[in-house]
From TrEMBL:
Classification via InterPro entries: Acyl_CoA_acyltransferase, Acyltransferase_MbtK/IucB-like
Places the protein is found: Cytoplasm
Composition bias, Basic and acidic residues: 27-41
SMART domains from the UniProt entry: AlcB (SM01006)
GO process annotations (BP): siderophore biosynthetic process
Keyword Transferase: yes
UniProt record similarity statement: Belongs to the lysine N-acyltransferase MbtK family.
GO cellular component, one term: cytoplasm
Region (Disordered): 9-45
Name by which UniProt lists this protein: Acyl-CoA N-acyltransferase
Domain Acyltransferase MbtK/IucB-like conserved: 255-303
Molecular-function GO terms, alphabetical: N-acyltransferase activity
Matching Gene3D superfamilies: 3.40.630.30
């Protein structure tokens, strides 16, 4: 069975990757029966491929060619093997158990234990969601969230590692009471995992450590008589967000807009009649677009970013804090950390509902990772932009109301962190 991991949960494609990957992991997106009905004439040969992590470090991943729930990892001196046991040939909602088949002595160091557990979960939650026939379908029966359990083997054999993995947010335990001495039954949920930034877990394989962005301490200021927290600067250099999208076989990235690099392409997009109808920023003069971008880069409450497929720009987005934005005067129950985004797709070849679902869920993912206090993401498209509104609702947003901006009649759409299950692939 081919092996190349991992992305973020696979909804469409049978190929799973991480950012910067090189091949398929599961040919049919299911676990094979451990007892085949007949012996092959020749035993299948192990398959070795590369697994690329978000920091561009490559691991070697080996599968046995027969049982696709056994995987071996190797990166420099790090070697470990995992397996998944399940009550079905497919992933289940609550019954799957992850175990270490073998491990090495560096697991006595907490950072290595955290790294390996993170990789296990990164692998597992790329599998397709449990199929409908494995989910309770009795009317009104509870489902709960998708979760996976752990055996107390490998890093989970040492109490200090169990405590570190729980403290890092990777797992929970059934009994979380302060007086509880129980350290069995560790489990992780998909909705929880995708809310964790990967950088803190990658230190054992980091060539150059990226500065960890922590939530800014709360201090307040005023904008147009609106009291709100002092906002942090966006990441100035490099990609803010990178993910391999297996359904398209391309990388999706978001980066801060650059005056010299992006003025011309944004100018071309703004002069597309389809875009101009909603943005109204068309101009013959390139300097008008340059001034438009410069204003955005100088703003304290929003910043412009460029979306790229395989490093080819496809869209322009403005990520903003709702509280001090004009929307904050019209939306109800606006929290200090709620965010919004304006969207523009400029390249025709990158339009369509499937791509919209991927990049909008990725923008939401970016905003939830960027500040864990953000609980709601909002958009306010024009009411006659019915196609985009449908795409947003297909991606999990709900329409709260319509209202009148001075310049347009808008629909207010929201997606709450509590209802978000993870980015699409």
């Amino acid at each position: 069975m081919p092996s190349d991991i991992i992305t973020i949960h696979s909804r469409v494609s049978p190929d799973l990757h991480t950012p910067d990957p090189t091949g398929p992991l599961f040919e049919d997106n299911r676990f094979e029966d451990t007892e085949p009905q007949h012996e092959p004439e020749e035993p299948p040969q192990p398959i070795v491929e590369k697994l690329h992590l978000p920091n561009r470090i490559a691991l070697h991943v080996t599968t046995d060619g027969r049982d696709d729930c056994k995987v071996d990892f190797e990166c420099n001196h790090l070697r470990w093997g995992i397996e998944i046991s399940s009550s079905s040939t497919y992933p289940t909602l609550h019954d799957d158990v992850l175990s270490f088949r073998y491990y090495s002595n560096e697991d006595n160091q907490e950072e290595y234990a955290l790294f390996k557990v993170w990789v296990m979960l990164f692998w597992y939650f790329q599998l397709p969601a449990p199929p409908a026939e494995l989910i309770p379908n009795k009317q009104g029966s509870p489902r709960g969230s998708w979760q996976v359990h752990f055996n107390n083997t490998g890093p989970f054999f040492k109490l200090a590692n169990l405590q570190a993995v729980e403290a890092a947010g990777l797992v929970s335990f059934p009994d979380s009471g302060a007086a509880s001495g129980e350290w069995i039954g560790a489990y992780a949920t998909r909705v929880g995992f995708w809310q964790l930034p990967p950088e803190p877990f990658l230190s054992p394989v980091c060539a150059a450590k990226k500065p960890l962005r922590m939530p800014k301490p709360v201090e307040y200021t005023f904008t147009d008589r609106v009291r709100h927290p002092v906002r942090p600067r966006p990441q100035p250099n490099g990609d803010m967000y990178t993910r391999w999208i297996s359904s398209f076989g391309q990388f999706l990235t978001f980066r801060l807009a650059d005056l010299d690099e992006d003025t011309e392409v944004v100018h071309r997009w703004m002069n597309d009649p389809r875009v101009a109808m909603f943005w109204g920023e068309e101009a013959d003069d390139l300097e008008k677009t340059r001034s438009f971008l410069k204003k955005g880069l100088g703003s304290k409450h929003f910043f412009p970013i460029i979306g790229c497929w395989d490093d080819e720009p496809f869209g322009y987005f403005e990520v903003y804090w709702v509280k001090e934005d004009a929307l904050g005067r019209y939306a109800s129950d606006v929290d200090m950390w709620d965010r919004g985004v304006h969207c523009l797709v400029g390249e025709q070849k990158f339009r369509g509902p499937q791509r919209v679902g991927v990049w909008i869920s990725s923008l939401v993912h970016f905003m939830f990772l960027d500040d864990p206090r953000t609980q709601t993401v909002m958009l306010e498209p024009r009411v006659d932009n019915t196609k985009f509104i449908k795409y947003l609702m297909d991606a999990g947003f709900y329409k709260e109301k319509e209202f009148a901006f001075p310049h347009k009649q808008a629909a207010l759409l929201k997606l709450k962190r509590e209802a978000w299950e993870g980015p699409l692939c």
